[in-house]
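Task 17 of the worksheet. Students: predict the tertiary structure of the chain below and write it out as structure tokens. Keep your answer in the requested format; marks are given for formatting as well as content.
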Amino acid sequence: MKKMRYLISFPFFLLLISCTQGDEQELEKIGLLLPYPIDDQAWNMKGYQGMLKLQSTLGVDVLLKEDIRSEQRVEDAIEEFSKEDVSLVFGHSHIYADLFMQFKDDYPNVHFISFNGDVEGDNITSLHFDGYAMGYFAGMLAGEMSMSNSIGVIAAFPFQPEVQGFKDGATFQSPAVTVNIEFVESWIDETKALEIFADMKNDNVDIFYPAGDGYHIDVIEEVKKEGLYAIGYVGDQLDMGESTVLTSTVQEVEKLYEYVGTQYKQGKLENGNLHFDFQDGVISMGEFGQEVPIDTKEWLEEHIITYTETGLLPSEIN
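Model answer:
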């Protein structure tokens, strides 16, 4: 069994605005479960960075466990956290939602946090990045810039809202474009993702959206070798090649974790399913690559500003 990691805490000096001493809940230790190792340069690393942000903001100890996926390992981890007086446990994946629902009543003094699951009841919250709009804007850009009128999404699972968003944005912007969508049925299967990439390349796809945080880096590397274009996923991937990456769909996990920790400490964290989008400052588009013309960049940014202010996508305005 892997040993539990401790992230060393330091003093908490930040004044929490609009929070009286009587409103605050005690928060000294936070637990984090990751389904895979933190060095994946993607989703799990962002969870770790989110904990570092919480640590610096709230001055808490963070207890970290990696490679926790089975029901038994999750149960054992929660028990260890409970013995260490952890009061807030983050499960950095949708896989933890159902498992936390099973165990939460046995730990009424612990508040459980997961991603993209369906939860209800006391002491449990599921955080949802509403990915449709970010996929929509990525699709608009791909539809605008494709020279072959053939673009591709290499997605992990059908339930990802950004996949449908990408297709809708692309076809709204360019009705003649063909959107090829294939599912890896895994977040981490690089081999299958690269097989899909090769098939799409042979079908004349020139812009790829690898919407899977365990294989997107590998796909973008292959896109770069072939002189084609990609749109990054989860983080800003512009550093992989300014002439390859057009932009990225970015989910600001660190900001969301800071929000949740602060809300919990203030006694304001809601139970149930909470949804977040551009308007909440935790979803954004990344930097634009050098192949994106300035007028195209400004055009897309204007649409994003309109959506952020009104909640209306371009197809809903006219």
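Marker's comment: The chain has a mean pLDDT of 89. The chain has two domains: 5-129+253-280, 132-251+288-317.
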